[in-house]
Design brief:
- By secondary structure, the chain is an alpha/beta fold.
- It is 29% helix and 17% strand.
- It contains eight helices and ten strands.
- It is globular, with a radius of gyration of 20 Å.
Length: 308
């Protein structure tokens, strides 16, 4: 009789750190020749190449392939590492190219109704709303200039004294309601995370940073929709329109399971924008979403979100 195999018990894992997918020497790496400008095509090519290398690096780390890890890290460093990627992203987000995604949020905040329902943007009576901006590249975007927000900015590799160098997955959790935020901004951050499970962990973690709101507070007695607390999220449109594993419908289902309700959405050929209202509920944390093929096809991408 064949010997029985012992089942390995799954161990709970701590949230994965975004910084673990960076090249080893990235914190001290600087671009030797940083161009003052790049064409739109060159900018897209550089950003795409960096994302592809990050995905390969994540796969190599998961497989314990140290030879490949070192080779990919050298490639990243030769291309200028995170700093070169950030430089290309800043150019892509410049006002001259219409790339400031926070303009969309500010437009939404000036909207008074959606589908005939009144929108209440702020019922906290605060002088300013508290915003946690994850992955900040510039301190002069529309949100920062608006005067509406008191912004806390963090990024893996800060390029300004006004941006705290910090991994969101390592940021200490709020200890009180006063430490929480009215809005968390993840603009082109979720797609930067190379691992589907880590993406799910990031989305779940945003809930811990938003102030408490019950499901009944999403729509008031007057029938008006409350925006805040909220998550402002921007990802490349192909992540939802051309993925084997994710559709806009499945993405919304994941967000709903975490306690998020869509208030606004905008889909362009390149980007998908969302403003989600967050509410606390005991049922928010119980659903599991695996990496399951939904749309087969050779031309599709592999973007996925796993929630455990």
């Amino acid at each position: 009789m064949a010997p029985t195999k012992k089942k390995n018990k799954k161990k709970s894992k701590a949230p994965r750190l975004l910084s673990h997918t960076r090249p080893k020497s990235l914190s001290t790496t600087r671009c030797q020749a940083k161009p003052t400008s790049l064409s739109s095509k060159a900018t897209r090519t550089q950003i795409r190449a960096y994302h592809n290398l990050q995905k390969r690096l994540s796969t190599a780390i998961a497989a314990g392939d140290t030879t490949s890890v070192e080779a990919i890290q050298r490639q990243l460093e030769e291309q200028g590492g995170l700093e070169a990627y950030q430089h290309a992203s800043i150019i892509g987000q410049s006002g001259q190219r219409g790339g400031d995604s926070s303009k969309v949020l500010m437009q939404w905040l000036s909207t008074e109704t959606v589908d005939g329902q009144k929108i209440v943007h702020d019922d906290t009576k605060k002088a300013k709303l508290r915003m946690l901006e994850v992955g900040t590249l510039k301190t002069t975007n529309a949100c920062s200039r608006s005067g509406v927000f008191d912004v806390t900015r963090i990024d893996l590799h800060s390029q300004s004294d006004e941006i705290l160098q910090q991994d969101f997955m390592e940021r200490p959790l709020p200890q009180s309601e006063a430490d929480k935020f009215d809005v968390v901004s993840l603009s082109l951050v979720l797609n930067f995370v190379p691992d589907p499970t880590a993406r799910g962990e990031m989305l779940r973690r945003t809930c811990s940073f938003l102030r408490t709101s019950s499901p009944t507070q999403a729509v008031g007695d007057d029938g008006a929709i409350r925006c805040f607390p909220a998550l402002f999220l921007v990802i490349p449109a192909p992540c939802l329109t051309n993925s084997r594993y994710t559709t806009e419908g499945s993405f919304e289902e994941i967000m709903e399971s975490l306690g998020y309700i869509i208030i606004f959405r905008k889909m362009s050929s390149k980007l998908a924008y969302f403003l989600f209202h967050y509410h606390d509920s005991e049922s928010n944390d119980h659903r599991v979403f695996k990496k399951t093929e939904i749309n087969p096809g050779k031309a599709r991408n592999n973007f996925a979100i796993v929630v455990q």
